[in-house]
Design brief:
heterodimer, A: alpha+beta, Sufe protein. Chain: A, GMP Synthetase, Chain A, domain 3, 3-stranded antiparallel beta sheet, B: alpha/beta, Aspartate Aminotransferase, domain 1, Aspartate Aminotransferase, domain 2, 2 domains, 4-stranded antiparallel beta sheet, 14 helices, 13 strands, 42% helix, globular
């Protein structure tokens, strides 16, 4: 049995704001019968068309999907549209006192319905999926290549969820979006996306002053190795150890599956490219055996 | 809150008489049955008595009974043994609706180079016998098919299947965990070579299973070590649980008629009442021969976990083929193999009764279930759409 918090149980057993708003200003629909959960969210705005004065929902799904929807409607009432857009899936989970990790996709679905409703209201272009075809994108405002065919999840949507929740493993991505949770065929693609997003996040976050102090450079190299490189090697059963930093020369030793691997030369070049990109352009990576 | 336990295909209550039978074998009669002294000897004779009682229920002889730790171990042991006995045969046949104890093992063996055929079922969950006939060949080492399905209760024609397997020299194993104690099985008149059963499905405790191996069937042990179970399953006997299982089998024999009359009548009453009261529902496997205690009903437009948790508020314990309850994100492989649409599979609920189920309990479910489904449908965007204009 899932370990639901008392707040989740309360919102499941006594859901707030079930129903519809006939003259709703904004409606957001996500999910499908085939996927096992779906949510239709109705928002009513004040006369200035700025503040949400009422919210109602209809949900097909498990207890945590119903509780997340109920929580969402409570959270957005009284908020302006901009304030509502700032509500994250983590905020919904927090409101409920937390959700089991495997159920985080329920909070993602809530946040997503809210976004769809507001984007649509503001006239932003949202591709509608063909209702004849059940496996259209589950989250229509993230157009892109469908990565998970089972649940109709696009790369654009996955990237957003990976980024906003700081996800680092394929299992986490499945828990948050369901992608990869059925046939598992797309898990390699999900891993690629994680690597891509981690690279992008690192690039966005990087501070590259014109001239790094030696101390700062060493610190940055270690940080990049820990954050961006070792997790990638772990995924393939390998590892590396930082042996020495001498000016621009970075000595690493490969461990586990990487040690003695025929393509460790390529791996060293990958490490070098990453460090050059994120730390300093003159870095040279040397493989040492110790 | 008193539980209304309708999840007996998951596990069962240990019968009081079974518990009394095993009780002395923890603190008082704790000897090792293999010991030479009188103290172990009296446990040995009780274990033998239990072996006889299990054999009696199966229509087998006592030396065909190997005690194991669970149904899963029995399934694993049977399949591994067949592959060792026939090293030149590299083909395994099973079905798409098997329990994971068999299916996962077969899929792992496929990774290791074995050819695995998973026979399909029709919309009512009936095995495709033509597909089976076509699949068996001289390369087939073992055919493993369940006697009855845990989710739907659908019974497979194992005798006929066993004959097909044996026509090409393959061994035939059946996971009969759900069938034993619910329908009569007579190994003396059977072609089945090996059969698995699990104690906790028939009112014995968890942690005890049996692998029946027909006399003369070549067998290689799964666990090796000591000489227990005639060196066919090493490891000190779980004496108390074995003794409990013996008693449980004796009782199962005694209650078999009731299982197929009283329990079946209650199951049918529950099923009919729910189908009458709730529109857009269907019985999974309703068109097939089924166990007398099981019914799996698919309710459209709602999701199983939500149904179970609302039932739970009334103390009603059932289970679901829904994705959300299984830890996986896909609905049950059994319902999907049967071609049950996703829209129904997510809202499938299994009720499995036992001889402890009462008419009053069934009345409670019949009373509480329709409003639960109506309430969830009222909340569901699909339910509202489809049920517009209906009560």
């Amino acid at each position: 049995m899932w370990d639901y918090t008392p707040i989740v149980k309360d919102h499941f057993l006594n859901p707030r704001n079930v129903g519809d708003i006939p003259d709703a200003d904004a409606i957001g629909e996500v999910g499908s019968l085939a996927c096992g959960d779906a949510l239709k969210l109705y928002l009513k705005l004040d006369d200035n068309k700025d503040k949400i004065v009422d919210a109602k929902f209809q949900t097909f799904g498990c207890a945590s999907a119903i509780a997340s929807s109920s929580a969402l409607t409570e959270m957005v009432k009284g908020k302006t549209l901009d304030e509502a857009l700032a509500v994250s899936n983590q905020d919904i989970a927090d409101f409920l006192g937390g959700l089991p990790e495997e159920k985080m996709h329920c909070s993602v679905m809530g946040q997503e319905a809210l976004e769809v409703a507001i984007f649509k209201y503001r006239g932003m272009d949202i591709p509608q999926h063909d209702s004849e075809h059940d496996q259209g994108p589950a989250y229509p405002d993230y157009e892109g290549e469908i990565v998970c065919k089972c649940f109709g999840i696009t790369d654009a949507f996955l990237k957003k969820v990976i980024e906003t929740n700081g996800l680092t493993t394929a299992e986490q991505v499945t828990n948050f979006t369901k992608a990869g949770g059925a046939c598992g065929g797309c898990i390699p693609k999900i891993k690629d996306l994680i690597a891509l997003v981690l690279g992008e996040t690192a690039a966005q976050a990087r501070v590259r002053p014109e001239k790094l102090s030696n101390m700062k450079k060493m610190q940055l190299i270690q940080e990049v190795l820990e954050r961006d490189i070792r997790p990638l090697l772990w995924a393939d059963g390998g590892d590396l150890e930082l042996i020495d930093i001498d000016g621009a020369k970075v000595q690493v030793a490969f461990r586990k599956a990487c040690a003695g691997c025929a393509s460790s030369g390529n791996t060293a070049r990958m490490v070098e490219a990453k460090l050059r990109d994120l730390v300093a352009e003159d870095i040279v990576v040397e493989e040492v055996s110790q | 809150m008193k539980e209304i336990y309708l999840d007996n295909n998951a596990t069962t209550k240990v019968d009081e008489a079974v518990f009394e039978e095993m009780r002395p074998y923890f603190c008082e009669l704790y000897g090792n049955p293999s010991s030479m002294h009188f103290f172990g000897g009296q446990v040995q004779s009780k274990v033998n008595e239990a072996r006889g009682r299990v054999a009696e229920l199966l229509g087998a002889s006592p030396d065909e009974i190997i005690f194991t730790a669970c149904g899963t171990e029995s399934d694993n042991a049977a399949i591994r043994s067949a592959l060792e006995v026939f090293p030149d045969r590299r083909h395994i046949i099973t079905s798409r609706v098997e329990h994971p104890a068999v299916l996962t093992q077969c899929r792992n063996l496929r990774q290791r180079g074995y050819r695995v055929t998973e026979i399909g079922v029709d919309g009512a969950g009936r095995l495709d016998m033509e597909e089976l006939r076509a699949a068996v060949d001289v390369d087939t080492a073992i055919v493993s098919l369940m006697w009855a399905n845990n989710e739907t209760g659908v019974i497979f024609p194992v005798e006929e299947a066993a004959k097909i397997a044996k026509s090409k020299g393959a061994l035939f194993h059946s996971d009969a965990v759900q069938a034993i104690g619910k329908i009569p099985i007579n190994m003396a008149a059977s072609s089945v070579d090996m059969l698995s059963l699990s104690g906790h499905k028939l009112h014995a405790p968890k942690g005890i299973g049996v692998l029946y191996v027909r006399r003369g069937t070549p067998f290689r042990p799964f666990l090796v070590g000591g000489h227990q179970e005639k060196s066919r399953r090493a490891g000190t006997e779980n004496a108390a649980a074995i003794i409990a299982l013996g008693k449980a089998c004796q009782l199962a024999d005694h209650y078999m008629a009731a299982e197929n009359s009283v329990v079946k009548t209650m199951r049918d009453r529950l099923q009919d009442a729910l189908m009458n009261a709730i529109p857009h529902a269907r019985i999974n496997g309703g068109g097939a021969e089924r166990l007398p205690n099981t019914t799996s009903i698919a309710f459209e437009f709602v999701e199983g976990e939500a149904i179970l948790l609302l039932l739970s508020e009334f103390g009603i314990c059932a289970s679901s083929g829904s994705a959300c309850t299984s830890g996986s994100l896909e609905p049950s492989h059994v319902l999907r193999a049967m071609g049950v649409p996703f829209t129904c599979a997510h809202g499938s609920i299994r009720f499995s009764l036992s001889r402890y189920t009462t008419d009053a309990e069934i009345d409670t479910v019949i009373r509480e279930m329709p409003p639960i489904i109506a309430r969830l449908r009222q909340m569901s965007p699909f339910g509202r759409e489809h049920l517009k204009g209906q009560a």
